[in-house]
Structures are given as structure tokens and as C-alpha cells.
Design a protein that fits this description.
By secondary structure, this protein is of the alpha+beta class. The chain is built from 8 helices and 4 strands; from the N terminus they run βαβαββαααααα. It has helices at about 10-20, 40-45, 65-75, 85-110, 120-145, 160-170, 180-190, 195-200, and strands at about 1-5, 25-30, 55, 60-65. A 4-stranded mixed sheet has the order 2-1-3-4, covered by helices on one side. The two termini are about 30 Å apart.
Length: about 210
């Protein structure tokens, strides 16, 4: 059985949703960020970066959301969570990569500026500017997905779970989705999916 290490509402939510969508057998293991469990020796032995998600498989441990999402899609092909066609698969991967390398990183400047600076003024300046930077990131996704309904058009994929986490974070982090009607509609469609409802409930989270 797979084992997913997660923290409620963290980016690990994307992997959690993917596992639910896939109908995969898995166990959830919560990592308590408040007590800094992610920095404990036991957890660092699982993921030396001290972050979530981490997925324990029969072959070994996977970290990094893009890798876990692709693994789930490939390991549970019957769920049809990724295109078979190489071009469309690459399109899906380009969105996942953009979310991981750009949108998520820009979002981290809102609450985790200490990763890049020690000066409180610099951290405060990052927190002030980061929502505008994230809004610019979301604008590209707004235009890219159009009216959807999903990232790849008619086919739902693991990329939708990854995008969902970014839009689910957006408004609490100061990026109003009223300016992004396509992304707002995507968020609403995702929140109506049974797999997403289950993942949110299991993490003690609510729709937005």
C-alpha cells in the first residue's frame, strides 16, 4: 500500500487528490508543521528536504509534487489521469512544471520569505509584493486554460489537482479570483468532484 506524508492544506493536497481520483489504496500520514515534525530526524530520513509531500511506494520513496502526480497517473492508468499521446502528455507536464517552479515558488514568498532573506524589512517587502507576482502567474494560466473545463480541455488530469491547490490558496493569500473567471470556474468544478471533497474532508479543510 502507498503511504502519503502530508500536511493539511499544503501542496501535498494535490497528491492526495490524485490518489483519490485514481482509486489508489493508500495510507495518510500527517506531518505536524506546528511542532516542526518535518525537521525531525525520523521525517528527514524520509524526505531530507523536510517538506511534503513524500510518497512511499513499493519501489522506494518519491518526493516532489510533479514526480508524484506523474507516478500516480502512470501507476493507475485505468483512472485516465494523463494523456497517452506524447504531445498532450508534454502539455500536461508543462503546466505541472510551471505550477511547481514558478507559481508555488512565488506563493512561498508570501509566508516563507525567511528562505530568501534574514532582514525583517526584506521579508516584509517580499510579503507585500508576492501577491501581485502570483496574480501575474495566474493570469498566464487564466488565459491558457480558457473555458476549460480542465487544464487540457475535455480531459481531466493530475494537472488539475495541482492547479486547484494554487487557486485554493489564492484568495487567503491576497489574490482575488474575481479577476480570474476561468480559474474561479475551474476551482468550483474541482470542489464539486467527489475525490476532491473526500480529500478536503480527510484533511479537515473546507471548500472556498
Amino acid at each position: 500500500m502507498l503511504k502519503l506524508f502530508y500536511s493539511p492544506g499544503a501542496v501535498s493536497l494535490a497528491a492526495h487528490i490524485a490518489l483519490e481520483e485514481a482509486g489508489a489504496p493508500y495510507e495518510l500520514v500527517r506531518v505536524d508543521f506546528r511542532s516542526r515534525q518535518q525537521r525531525s530526524p525520523d521525517y528527514l530520513a524520509i524526505n531530507p528536504q523536510g517538506r511534503v509531500p513524500a510518497l512511499v511506494t513499493g519501489e522506494g520513496i518519491l518526493t516532489e509534487t510533479p514526480a508524484i502526480l506523474v507516478y500516480v497517473a502512470q501507476a493507475f492508468r485505468q483512472a485516465d489521469l494523463a494523456p497517452e499521446d506524447p504531445w498532450h502528455f508534454a502539455r500536461m507536464l508543462s503546466v505541472i512544471s510551471y505550477v511547481a517552479s514558478t507559481v508555488h515558488v512565488d506563493n512561498a514568498h508570501i509566508n516563507r520569505g525567511y528562505r530568501w532573506a534574514d532582514d525583517p524589512a526584506a521579508i516584509a517587502d517580499m510579503r507585500r509584493k508576492a501577491p501581485a507576482v502570483m496574480a501575474a502567474d495566474l493570469r498566464l494560466l487564466e488565459d491558457r486554460i480558457g473555458h476549460g473545463p480542465w487544464v487540457l480541455g475535455e480531459q481531466h488530469s493530475v494537472a488539475d489537482a495541482h492547479l486547484f491547490v494554487m487557486t485554493w490558496w489564492a484568495e487567503p493569500d491576497g489574490v482575488p479570483l474575481m479577476d480570474f473567471p476561468n480559474l474561479r470556474a475551474h476551482l468550483d468544478r474541482m470542489q464539486a468532484r467527489p475525490a476532491v471533497m473526500r480529500a478536503l474532508a480527510q484533511e479537515g479543510l473546507a471548500a472556498r
